[in-house]
C-alpha cells in the first residue's frame, strides 16, 4: 500500500504535468487510475473545484496529503495555467510524423479504456481545448477528452523511474568526468596559459560577407549560402583555411554567428549553408500549413549533398574571386544537432537502416526525443547512400543526432579528427542516451570529448511560450534565448584550437586541446570537462560502471 501511495503522489503532479507537456484533450467525467492490480478514480469536477476554489473534496484529499503545500500550489497552477495555442498549428503538429509517433507513445499511458491507445482521443481533446472560448488549460483538455480518462500508472511510473535513473546517471557521469579532467590535467605537461594567446578573444582580421544562391536541377533544389571571409587573405596559394557550417533543424540565418565571427577574425573563410528542407523558413511554412511536415525527410540525403555542392562552388570561385588562396583540399566542418548528422555523413558514416529498424519500434523511447527525428529516415528508399566528401578532413560537433541513424557499425567508419561537444542538460539528445555510446563507437585516433555542465540543446523561455501564437523569426530571441557568453567562449576557443591543429596546420595550438586548458578557462556555474584523444577511451569504462550501478540499484 505504501508503494501505491507513492504512485499516487506521482499521479498528482507527475502524471498531470506529463499530460500538459504532451499537449494532449463528449467530456470526461472521471480520471481512472489503473495500478494493474487495483483501480481508483478522481472526478474532473473535483479537480476543477480544487483548482478554481481551493476546495478539497474527500476523494482528492488522500492524494493531496502526500504533497507539500508548495507542491499542492504547483498542481493548482498547472490545472488552470493558460497557454496561447493556435488551433491551426495544433492540426499541423498532428500531421507531422514526429507528432504522430509522440502521441502514439503518450497514448500507451493515457488511454481511452484499459489497453486501448489514447493517441486519437488526446489529439481530439487538445484540438477542442485549443478552440475553447475559456482558453487552453489542462482542465479544458480533460473536459474535452472523449470519454473517461484512463491513466496507466504502471507504465507512467516506469517512465518516471527511467527519468529518475537517467538524471542520477547523468549526475554520476558529470562527477566522473570532472574527476577524469582534473586527473588528466595534473598529468599533462605544465603550461602557463596566461603566457599564451587567449584564443577566446577576437582575432585581428575584419569580416566581409556576401550571400549567393546555388541551384541543382537534378535535385530540383535551390539554396542560399552566407560566405564570410577576412578582408585581407594570406598571400600564399592555398594558404587560407575553409570551414563549412551546417546548422540544426529549424535554424535561422544568424545561427552560430558568434562562431563565424570568431573564426573569420582569426583568418578563416566560413560558409554557412541554409538547407531549404529543414531550415527556419521550412519550419515556419509547416506551421503556416504550406509544408506537410516539420522537415523534408530527403534532408538526410540533401544536406550532405548541399555541402559538397558548396565546396564545388568554392573551388570555382577560388580560381577567380580568391586567386587560388583557399585551401579546399583540407576543409573543416562544424555542425549542431541535425547539422552534426550532416557532418558525420560527410565524414563517412552511412545511414544504418538495420539499426533504425531495431530502435524505432513503437512506442518510441521518450527519454531520447531525437529518435523522433532519426526514425524518419526509415521512410527513405533503403539503399547504400555514400555521402562522404574526401575534402572534409576534420569535424567539430555539438549535440549530435547520430546513435540510431548511424549506429555503431557506421560510426566506426569515421576516423577523421573529431571534436564532440555536449551539454549535461540536453533534453533532445541526452548525453547518456544519445551521445556517449556514439562517441565511443568512433574509430578516430584523434577525438576529443567536452561536456558543459548545465548546457542545453535549446534554451527555451517557457514564460514566453505561454504567449506564443505564430512562429516569426523576430520572436525567436524571446522564445529561444541565446547561449551565455561564457558558453560561447568555450565553443569559440575549442573550435579555433581544433581547426588550427587539423585544418590550419598549426600544431602549436595543440596545448589548447588538453584537459589543463579546460580547467583553466572553466567557470561556474557552467563548468567545463574535457578529455583529449589520449584519455577519451576511458569514457567506455565510465559508461559501463554507471550502467552497472544503475542496474544494481534497480535490483
| Subunit arrangement of the protein | single chain
The CATH level-2 architecture of the largest domain is identified as 3-Layer(aba) Sandwich
Q: Give the termini separation.
A: 20 Å
Classify the helix fraction into a percent range: 40-55%
Structural class of the helices, strands and pairings?
Answer: alpha/beta
Fourth CATH level, the homologous superfamily of the largest domain:
Alpha/Beta hydrolase fold, catalytic domain
Under CATH, the topology of the largest domain is which?
Rossmann fold
Mean pLDDT: 86
CATH classification class of the largest domain: Alpha Beta
Largest sheet: 9 strands, mixed
In terms of per-residue confidence, which ranges show pLDDT below 50 for 5 or more consecutive residues?
A: 1-25, 460-466, 474-481, 551-555
The geometry reads as globular
Total helical elements: 22
Overall structural domain count: 2
Radius of gyration, Cα only, in angstroms?
25 Å
Amino acid at each position: 500500500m505504501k508503494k501505491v501511495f507513492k504512485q499516487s503522489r506521482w499521479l498528482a503532479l507527475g502524471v498531470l504535468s506529463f499530460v500538459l507537456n504532451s499537449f494532449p484533450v463528449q467530456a470526461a467525467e472521471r480520471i481512472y487510475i489503473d495500478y494493474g492490480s487495483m483501480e481508483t478514480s478522481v472526478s474532473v469536477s473535483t479537480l476543477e473545484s480544487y483548482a478554481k476554489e481551493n476546495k478539497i473534496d474527500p476523494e482528492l484529499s488522500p492524494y493531496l496529503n502526500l504533497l507539500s503545500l508548495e507542491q499542492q500550489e504547483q498542481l493548482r497552477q498547472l490545472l488552470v495555467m493558460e497557454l496561447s495555442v493556435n488551433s491551426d498549428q495544433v492540426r499541423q503538429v498532428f500531421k507531422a510524423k514526429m507528432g504522430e509517433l509522440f502521441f502514439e507513445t503518450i497514448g500507451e499511458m493515457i488511454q481511452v479504456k484499459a489497453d486501448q491507445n489514447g493517441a486519437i482521443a488526446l489529439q481530439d481533446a487538445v484540438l477542442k481545448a485549443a478552440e475553447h472560448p475559456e482558453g487552453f488549460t489542462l482542465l479544458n483538455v480533460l473536459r474535452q477528452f472523449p470519454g473517461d480518462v484512463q491513466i496507466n500508472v504502471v507504465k507512467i511510473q516506469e517512465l518516471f523511474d527511467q527519468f529518475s535513473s537517467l538524471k542520477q546517471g547523468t549526475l554520476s557521469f558529470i562527477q566522473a568526468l570532472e574527476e577524469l579532467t582534473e586527473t588528466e590535467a595534473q598529468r599533462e605537461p605544465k603550461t602557463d596559459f596566461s603566457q599564451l594567446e587567449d584564443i577566446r578573444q577576437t582575432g585581428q582580421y575584419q569580416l566581409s560577407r556576401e550571400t549567393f544562391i546555388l541551384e541543382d536541377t537534378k535535385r530540383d533544389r535551390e539554396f542560399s549560402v552566407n560566405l564570410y571571409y577576412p578582408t585581407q587573405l594570406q598571400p600564399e596559394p592555398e594558404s587560407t583555411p575553409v570551414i563549412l557550417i551546417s546548422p540544426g533543424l529549424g535554424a535561422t540565418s544568424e545561427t552560430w554567428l558568434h562562431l563565424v565571427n570568431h573564426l573569420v577574425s582569426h583568418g578563416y573563410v566560413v560558409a554557412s549553408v541554409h538547407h531549404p528542407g529543414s531550415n527556419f523558413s521550412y519550419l515556419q511554412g509547416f506551421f503556416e500549413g504550406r509544408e506537410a511536415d516539420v522537415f523534408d525527410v530527403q534532408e538526410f540525403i540533401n544536406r550532405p549533398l548541399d555541402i559538397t555542392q558548396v565546396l564545388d562552388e568554392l573551388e570555382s570561385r577560388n580560381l577567380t574571386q580568391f586567386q587560388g588562396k583557399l585551401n579546399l583540399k583540407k576543409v573543416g566542418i562544424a555542425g549542431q544537432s541535425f547539422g552534426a548528422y550532416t557532418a558525420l555523413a560527410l565524414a563517412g558514416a552511412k545511414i544504418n537502416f538495420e539499426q533504425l529498424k531495431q530502435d524505432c519500434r513503437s512506442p518510441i523511447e521518450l527519454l531520447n526525443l531525437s529518435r523522433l527525428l532519426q526514425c524518419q529516415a526509415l521512410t527513405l528508399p533503403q539503399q547504400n547512400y555514400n555521402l562522404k566528401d574526401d575534402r572534409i578532413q576534420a569535424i567539430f560537433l555539438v549535440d549530435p543526432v547520430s546513435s540510431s541513424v548511424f549506429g555503431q557499425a557506421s560510426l566506426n567508419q569515421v576516423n577523421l579528427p573529431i571534436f564532440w561537444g555536449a551539454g549535461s542538460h540536453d533534453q533532445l539528445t541526452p548525453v547518456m542516451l544519445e551521445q556517449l555510446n556514439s562517441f565511443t563507437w568512433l574509430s578516430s585516433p584523434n577525438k576529443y570529448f567536452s561536456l558543459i555542465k548545465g548546457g542545453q540543446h535549446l534554451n527555451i523561455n517557457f514564460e514566453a511560450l505561454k504567449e506564443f501564437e505564430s512562429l516569426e523569426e523576430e520572436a525567436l530571441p524571446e522564445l529561444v534565448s541565446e547561449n551565455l557568453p561564457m558558453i560561447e567562449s568555450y565553443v569559440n576557443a575549442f573550435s579555433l584550437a581544433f581547426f588550427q591543429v587539423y585544418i590550419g596546420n598549426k600544431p602549436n595550438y595543440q596545448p589548447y586541446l588538453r584537459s589543463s586548458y579546460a580547467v583553466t578557462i572553466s567557470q561556474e556555474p557552467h563548468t567545463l570537462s574535457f578529455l583529449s584523444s589520449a584519455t577519451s577511451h576511458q569514457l567506455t569504462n565510465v559508461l559501463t560502471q554507471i550502467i552497472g550501478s544503475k542496474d544494481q540499484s534497480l535490483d
